[in-house]
Amino acid sequence: MRYPLVLGCLVAALAVAVVAGLALGSVRIGPGEVVAALTGRAAPSPYRTIVLDVRLPRVLLGAIVGAGLAVVGTVLQALVRNKLADPFLLGISSGASTGAVAVLVLGIGGGVTTTVAMPAAAFAGSLVALALVYSLARRGGAMTGGRLVLAGVTVSYILSALTTLLLVVAARPEQFQEALYWTLGGLGSARWGTLVLPGVVLLAGTALLMTLARPLDLLLVGEEGASVLGLNAGAFRAAVFVVASLVTGVMVAASGAVGFIGLLVPHAARAVVGAGHRGLLPVAALGGAVVLVVADLAARTVAAPQDVPVGVLTALIGGPFFLWLMRRRPEGAPA
Predict the structure, then answer these.
(1) Along the chain (335 residues), what's the average pLDDT of each consecutive run of 10 residues?
(2) CA separation (Å) from 53 to 41, 144, 169, 191, 272?
(3) Is the peptide bond before 119 cis (omega within 30 degrees of 0)?
(4) Considering the entire predicted model, what is its pTM?
(5) CA dist 302 to 58, 59, 294, 305, 307, Å?
(6) What kind and span of H or E run contains 198?
């Protein structure tokens, strides 16, 4: 498929997913009423309130978070030259969760907790987790897929245990319920005010990474080859790790730990448009947005009126896909 056609199909799929996300749920609303509410032609009614104040912020947050996680997954796979890399599997999401939960249960930040303190703590946690996983995977020999995944899973378990300890020891009963649901990943807390920071970080981070498409392509030939071609691979990798951690931290602070989007979507995007990052990153962003909007729609409708955490559904889909990747990739195989 030609690249413009791919982008057009993804934009159309995202539009359909958004309309479906606005129309379907515990209360079903006709597509015509959804369009009327969005265009301002609908008279004030409960349906209009549901569409504009409840579902639209949630759908938009799903699109933003899905795009951000897919972009980060794409970049991480290039940085470590391993297609098993993913913010969830490498422990980055767990680090962000630990930082955000610490802010939530300890009351750090006062009235700015959800807008400043929580994203900042999630960014710090994700950066520490990523640095720890990468250093562990490289220690004692060449970094392989198995070592990377083992280090990520180990760090993730430790940070998840720390998060649980914070909830048990420090959280009040009402906080425990809120934080537990949040750590599973969910978009139910989306409001218009919660969209600003993730949206800005997504746009700025993706634009910055797009300017770094050529160095990311050079990393695919290996660190030595990239150095021969004029790239300071170590410094470049460290700088992009910071950007990836920032985007992950802000996304996790907004939606909780939603796993496997950054693993599934980049593989599908590469199969369609190839490995060049200038074309790959926009396709991954649009694909991630579509996948998470659809997954959240399923989470809202599969057990309606109960709201299933979307992170549970993405794990049920992504887990078998990860096992399939592990089966078809020999130990030590490059990206």
Answers:
(1) 91 94 86 81 76 92 96 91 82 88 75 70 90 81 70 89 83 70 80 91 95 90 72 84 91 87 91 92 96 92 80 84 69 45
(2) 16, 47, 35, 7, 36
(3) no
(4) 0.89
(5) 17, 17, 12, 9, 8
(6) helix 196-211
